[in-house]
Design a protein that fits this description.
By secondary structure, this protein is of the alpha+beta class. The protein is built from eleven helices and 19 strands. The two termini are 21 Å apart.
């Protein structure tokens, strides 16, 4: 614990959220839950929002302001007082920079909890800034955050490590416009249906199910609204969608896995889209634990730990799988900062495993406090 003079103080946690990505609102919702769960008797907490145009501001510590509205209204960062991290020898402080006033220090920050989803936050950019500033932070480092956000490179890495993934093809920026026939030929080889996805977006934004080549152009255009790089993946026909949480072990112990959950989406949704994830819960049912044969559950746990290690993840991850009727298990993706509301899949799986939401948040902060920045 840091000290000011001879008086010990509580560790100071800066919760950073919002950002420039299309997942700005979901980041705010997740952060509201984290802010509510952090024990103010144990930690000093500073809420820092990043506006959609990239400004860092001091935000309200009132979690309710960051919740989804009753009709699904999405929250946003609206703070006015701009702040900045000011690196110092072995630490960093937060400084308020009000226009025309002398900068005011809010004190040293011991750890940042980056509740960020998508590019410009979850993708290694924020992690790199924190490494440069010498500030410890919750979750994956620079490389694993970057690879974990880019579905194309994630799949390349998994395939190189021998992990099972679905067949896929990339569509790089401008490729569809230059040669749509060649792209269509590559996609046709996957066989329909396929899913067209932004390569570096989450929360199912920009994803389309495509059942024929005639639908491909529109689906690519939709994905490109979120990312110029697009991924097309074979559909996991008749497969079940399951997820599992992974936590870094304490004191160098092996990673721990949560109960496995199965997602069952209402028939009104063609797949697990944004509305099914975040809007009224009758859209989706979550079975925790999932009703899986023991051998399949063991396979899921083993592959989850392998994927966690392959990406060199620290702190936490949610690993998503497809389970086929013949028992075959395929890794879909790894989320290095999954949705973190109290009703999100990752916290719910850990709650079913005996680790409550406040305990989970505290565990992640303690893991971050007990590691260094830099090469490790």
């Amino acid at each position: 614990m840091s000290e000011q003079g001879s008086t010990p103080r509580k560790p100071r946690v800066a919760v950073v959220f919002g950002g420039r990505s299309s997942e700005h609102a979901i980041s705010c919702v997740s952060a509201g839950s984290v802010l509510a769960a952090l024990d103010r008797e144990k930690y000093d907490v500073i809420p820092i929002g990043i506006t959609p145009d990239g400004r860092w501001v001091l935000e309200s510590a009132e979690p309710g302001r960051l919740a989804l509205g009753p009709a699904g209204e999405l929250p946003s960062v609206t703070g006015k007082e701009e702040v900045a991290l000011r690196p110092a020898a072995g630490s960093a402080g937060v400084v308020v920079q009000a226009a025309g006033d002398v900068p005011t220090s809010l004190g040293e920050v011991d750890v940042v909890f980056p509740v960020m989803h998508g590019p410009w936050g979850q993708d290694g950019t924020l992690q790199g800034l924190l490494e440069l500033a010498g500030v410890r932070y919750v979750g994956a480092g620079v490389l694993s955050s970057a690879v974990g956000t880019d579905k194309m490179y994630m799949k390349l890495l998994f395939a190189a490590q021998g992990l099972p993934v679905l067949p896929w093809v990339p569509i790089r920026p401008g490729e569809w416009e230059r040669d749509p026939a060649a792209v269509t030929e590559s996609v046709n080889a996957l066989h329909y249906p396929v899913f067209v996805k932004p390569a570096r977006a989450g929360s199912s934004l920009g994803i389309s199910r495509v059942d024929s080549a005639d639908e491909l152009g529109d689906a690519i255009a939709e994905a490109e609204r979120f990312d110029p790089k697009v991924l097309v993946e074979a559909a996991a026909v008749e497969a079940r969608e399951v997820e599992i949480g992974v936590l870094q072990g304490l004191d160098g112990a092996a990673p721990e896995t949560s109960e496995i959950a199965e997602i069952r989406v209402a028939a009104a949704h063609r797949f697990y889209d944004f509305e099914a994830k975040y809007l009224p819960e009758e859209n989706t049912e979550l079975d925790v634990p999932a009703d899986l044969e023991a051998a399949v559950a063991t396979k899921v746990r083993g592959l989850a730990v392998q994927a966690f290690a392959a990406l060199d993840v620290e702190g936490l991850a949610r690993v998503d799988f497809f389970v086929f009727p013949d028992g075959r298990v395929v890794v879909n993706e790894v989320e290095t900062m999954p949705g973190f509301t109290s009703t999100s899949m990752f916290p719910r799986m850990w709650a079913a495993s005996g680790l409550s939401y406040p305990e989970l948040v505290d565990r992640l902060v303690q893991l971050a406090l007990n590691r260094t920045t830099g090469l490790r």
